[in-house]
Amino acid sequence: MKTLQASDPSSFKGTVILPFFENENILQARLEFKNIQVPQAIFNGKKDSQYLVKDQESGNIFIFLGLGKNPIYKEIKTAFRRLTAKQADFFQENVLLHLTEEMGEQVLEAAVSGLLLGTYRLGHYKSAIDKEKDWTSISLSISTNLANAEIIVLKAQKLAAAQLETFHLVDLPPNKITPSFLAEWAENAGKQYGFNTKVLDRKRAEKENLHAFLAVGQGSHREPQFIIMEYRPRNAKKHVGLVGKGVTFDTGGLNIKTQGMVHMKCDMGGAATVLGAMQLIADLKIPVSITAVVPCVENSIDNQSILPSEVIRSYSGKTIEIIDTDAEGRLILADGLNYLIKNYKPDTIIDFATLTGSAVGTFGYECAALFSKDDNLLKVLQECGEKVGERVWPLPMWDVYQSEMESEIADIKNYHGKPYAGAITAAKFLEFFTENHPSWAHIDIAGTAFGDSEFAKTKHATAFGVHLLLKFMENL
């Protein structure tokens, strides 16, 4: 949708969106629209409520949108996303979003990004009889008293664009989203948005001794790709390292999954988060230096697959006993983290991964599991997540859990083999390869990157972590 600044709302022709807080004076919608009156008995701004009315005199369609009493950012965003997702027929050539004086920057940003996210559809490969709606032909005018409205709208558009790109990366099938596809995506995005991309293929990864990374992909005919992205603004204040788990499909390896494999295209959700965040951060020219590592493999099965009980090497030089080939994400992250730390020495490191079912069992689908020994980093990430509706909550990183990962034959084993503390022991495994970095955080997004919602009939991507990372960078 194209966005415009509304000059005279009273003379507007088209669809008008009027958001209201609960118990706001609804009897008179807005002074600019004197012909439209709605009794509070019918509509009072209650959360998730809508009321549609057509003005016979002007021909305008008015959508009254209830935001509730004290809506948080995510609730506002979802309310507006619901409009374009479920009321698309009312979005014709011209749409006006009319905000009152008390509706500030948060409402405007959430509204615009929500409307744009609602245009997303999962039918990427449908042979549609009817032509899909052309959202680019619709003009969105905005009426607000905010002096910096243009800046906020532009930010909302770029935020939505990055999240929509993340949706595509996770939702498209694994025969499309391969390691090579993600590498090409990163190279193209770097050229478009202004960051450098280097990709290590199998031969170059062998020369770099990325043994754990290569071990996971050795059962697949698809070439593994170790992606390194560098964003270097001139006015950078800090240097942040990002790592994203990029398992483009996870069969479980020889410890083959017995259920839920149809959804394992989402196992590159951490990679998608980091790629989407790189696009957004560079697009907005955030003054933070970023080095992002995204190890991408397909965990498949053939006579070359790693075997349970094998001992493999890692980039760090430490050896790993393979207890379970379905605990593969932590292996590529181990090499990714260690490579990042040794070669780039960032001030702070954050990794994102759809790592464990244990995280889902603990927090369900509303919150990601957060791990760090840096109390300040924990606090900032929690606060940033709360502000944008991407909640994270800490689990303990006590050293007593490290004993669970001790191996008799190697330096460490990749799985403790017990039905408890799975997310914690996975985090302790990763910590083993961080060289005791003082400011590292691991975020397990297994329950939040991909799931059910009102916006599709099947599980789909959420782009969890993209906005969280932006908010975090803005607060450095």
From TrEMBL:
Q: Which InterPro entries match?
A: Leucine_aapep/pepB (IPR011356), Macro_dom-like (IPR043472), Peptidase_M17_C (IPR000819)
* An annotated Gene Ontology molecular function: manganese ion binding
Q: Which organism is it from?
A: Cecembia rubra
Q: What is this protein called?
A: Leucyl aminopeptidase
Keyword terms, alphabetized: Aminopeptidase, Hydrolase, Manganese, Protease
A GO term from the CC aspect? cytoplasm
Q: Boundaries of each Cytosol aminopeptidase domain copy?
A: 168-469
A Pfam family assignment? Peptidase_M17
